[in-house]
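dude i think i finally got it to work??
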Amino acid sequence: MTYPAILAACALAIFMATRLGLTIHSARDIGMPVLPHVFGRGVWFDLVTIGALLSPFLFVNAVLPNRLRQSRGFAWLSKAVVWFVVCLLLFSAIGEFFFWEEFATRYNFIAVDYLVYTQEVIANITQSYPVTPLLIGIGLVAAGFIWALRRWFTAVETTPYSGRTRLIMLALAVIGPCLSLLTNIDQMRGSGNAYADELSGNGLFSLVSAFFLNELDYDRFYVTIPADKANRILVDLKVSRAKQDEPGGPTASMPSYLVRRPKNVVLITVESLSAEFLGSYGSTKGLTPNLDRIASQGLMFDRLFATGTRTVRGLEATSLGTPPVPGQAIVRRPQSDHLTTLGEILHRDGFDTGFAYGGNAFFDNMAAYFSGNDYAVLDQGDFPPDAIAFENAWGVADESLLDNVTSQLDKQTAGKKPFFMHVMTTSNHRPYTYPDGRIDIASPGGRDGAVKYTDYAIGRFLQQAATKPWFANTLFIITADHCASAAGKTELPVGGYHIPMFFYGPGLVKPGHISTLVSQIDLPPTILRALGASGESHFFGRAIDGSKSDNERAFISNYQSLGYMKNGTLTVLRPKGVVESYAVDPTTLASRPAPVNAQLRDEAIAYYQTASRDFKTGVLRAAW
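look at this
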């Protein structure tokens, strides 16, 4: 027995217990047939992780002389190290349960991002969970491990290491990291069930892998086609990606759903607002009376799908109108300034353009991205203290955000310039806290309470806006950045990307429905078409004018898998050149494996390959 062996036993027990607990928690979504995949591959990932984790401990124990290693000081130090590492592993295991509850995955690139923004994340954790009791409990359980294994420690302290034992430890210190280099998260897959694939991995291994896979070069990891072929496909799909404004923007026909053109636009992207929460999309919970009223009085989009599962993906799509490139969203990448964004185009054409966020816009690089693309950024730090009714880890309450937006719009309209304001809310996010007395669900009210509070705040904002002189000429667009959850038995569960959208403007918008399949990337050119402004040809998205299209499609993705949904088929591009296809039920949105359609495969490649290259080579940069 050796100290590294004791630590390995503790780590393996924690890893296996974590997997077993998560499997029991998700039993309804997994099923018995895939359990051998979960636990068989799970043991392999656990052992590989342990090998890499223990490498430095193995090396130190292999080279220390027996006299020093058997000293009382080293014995206490070893117990302290084992206790500390066990504490970290237990903390990670508990974190995995909370992370699974939120995202239904092992640690991934979202967890990596959270490590960057520690202030917001730590505040969120402390407001959402009983942190102090958890930390005390972790320390006591780790101490229990040490006590239970006290005989093992005594045996190690009294037994000298032979030369053979030292050679074995040195060999393992080298083999462990080498095995980790030969293992990758793609080896988790193969069960046919996304939950089972995730559970077969190891959280720490997935976390480290996500750190290195945050940036994925399309041409290196995905299937490609010749650039001229991709361009021909996009031209046939009427995607021009013009570098200069094409004729016809200001003179293009007004969309059929408008009574007259608006002068201004307010776009509200609501945090984590799945379509399933709204009564107008079938919910019976009664959480959204204001949004349901707006839906009945305005234009409702029945089949809109988010491009991703993160706020930055929604912001990327609704400002830049480009399919989601693999890896990190463009919002968070270097060289993301002065692109052909909606704000950049409208600012050039004389609009006051703004982005308002309820939290600190430093988060997710929002401040740098939007200010670098000619948006005036308004965030929590700009709000007067007496204009904040409530705030939590993620920012001010939505009513305070929208009150400050109203004040800002009053100032802007004094200059007689038209305005475009993009608002990003925060209240519909864990810890789900909000001011008391606004709704009939006490804070913290969980997801239902947060949805109902956000609905209250938006209804209140529109009621106040109706008293303003700019209201009659303003088109209000309400949608979501992404869904509350995109978990499912498949890696890209289509229903997990279905979000609401309404166009609202009494005297501007005809009540009705748009049943066309729509993507978030279609919003920027649609806004330009509604305003009668030029520039819609800059985008990969298409302007929605109310007519039926032969090329209805949507884009859904996570940070690795890129989905293209068209004609009832979801084509998925994955790293290592993998292409998969699924038939999507039009009613339930459930999907099942299907043969790959060559035309849809090439269309998907043309969109994603070209979007990735256009950003990388600077084609997406504004030409003015």
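The chain has a mean pLDDT of 91.
im so relieved honestly
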